[in-house]
Amino acid sequence: MSSVTLSIVVMLLAAAVLAMSGLYVAERRKKARLEAQWISARRALERIQPLAGMENNLDVLLEAFSHAVEASMYAFYLLQPEKKQYTLRALRHSKPNIGRAAPSYSGLTPYPEQPYLPPLSLPIDAGRIEGAGWIAEKGVSLLHISLQGGDGILRAGPARKRSKRLETTVAETVGWFSPVVSWLLQVEASVRSGEAARKSDASWRRLLLLIAEPESVVDLAFRVAMDVMELKDAEFVSAADDEPQGETAVSLRQDGGHAVFVCRYRTPSGVGERAFRSVPAHCVMDDRRIADSLRTACLQAEAFLAAAGNRATRSERVLLLKRFASLFDAMSPWKTGYAEQMSRYATVVARDLGLPDEEVQEIATAAWIANIGEAALETGLMTKDGRFTEDEYERMKTHAELGATMAELTLGERGRIAEAIRYHHERVDGRGYPSGLTGSSIPIGARVIAVVQTFLAAVHGRKQREPLAFGVALGRLEAAAGTMLDPEVVGTFVNWFSRKRADAGETMKPLGVCWEMHCTPSSLCEVCPVYGQREKPCWTYENQACASHGKSCKQCFVYTEAAERSGGSARK
Length: 572
Prior knowledge:
Number of helices: 19
Structural class: alpha+beta
Number of strands: 11
Radius of gyration: 27 Å
Low-confidence stretches: 96-114, 195-199, 281-285
Order of helices and strands: HHEEEEEEEHHHEEEEHHHHHHHHHHHHHH
Mean pLDDT: 76
């Protein structure tokens, strides 16, 4: 190789290294910027108080926006459909020589030194400008931003600098701004209904706390476990000095006549520990079931806290919501693996419906986190068995809206994921909630989730309710088609199972191994003699650990499906 050729190769390699280094630095900077914006958004959420008034809360959001976009004036307009206009509801100005935004005392009148006076209202046509753009008004260059859904308009100016990076920053910031404003409008509407507002205010406050403080999520989740497992009371304690740090474990100790379960798990800042004390006579489950469930809960708590510490990108925030849902599922032996199971079946149905891959993925995510809004309800509602009173039912119904809002605030978008969560309890006959939508006006993601959730609710038991056999559960789906459920989605789901069953033939071979069909975490299955075995049906083994996650062979849909298909009954 000549010296000239060698020099060219070296130069090309150096250029490639420099290019890769530049891309790496750019990616790191982008992630740092996204993380900073998430922190700013979270701090704004922490300061929002649902019943403090729309103007006060919008002012908090404008202050957060001022840290991302530098301007002299920030104005926010809300849509008034009855007047066919947008009305100015919040205004902020930069103080001279400080660079920080502060509210004007009048709320409408700017400081005298400001050269631009925003109008008190805008025509409804102003909301037709999609996304962010630059406009000129009275000789002043303004950044004009229409929020998703047309709820409001944000203006900032006079604009001091235009750049591609500024436009990117605006898009990223408004991504979380839009769902917050939508949620505030819902709260404002609730305030007008008086009693409903007082009852729902606590749920909205819990929702904000759950979004802003990951540790509070873990605390709440373990209190749910305490309720579900009928433990007498809980004590929060610190890790003992003589125990190994960083070890995930559940131990059973005796304290007088009490059994004390000590749960230890890793947190980003060290070791967390929760102690649960139970009076054995009041505990309906054996110690092993409690210990197994709490061990799984500890692992899910670790996974959730790890995800909470890294949520700059959209995919990381999706993972956070999934970990959130799985954490609360792990607190009940009857629901362990439920969210993932919802997602898997929803994926199958969405694909068989011929939906685009991107929409299939969104439906799969929505199905996984469809019930996260329940975490914002009082613990007694989350864990209650049996029928709700009329008042309890009305409060329970808000979980769909709460869950959709949580998804919107965390993902920073009002898209199909949140829509599917918000409307997954609608009925095709219009008798569902929250909006009484009918037929195809219900988003397809919501219709898919409704079918899958109805099936899984039937084949999974609860503490005081036995599960239905596989065939009976499918029969209920078909009976509900056209009234409660979408007939096409029901047909797609039933046909998928029919193909699977035809492939299996008239044998006692199950459609799949039990731990995969139930999406049961390995932390529960690893102590079971069935785990990892594929040669024989699970019900032929002795001493299965099914009871640790609320199952028994004769009621499990893995067993009842095979028994019905074979025309007989399975025997050990």
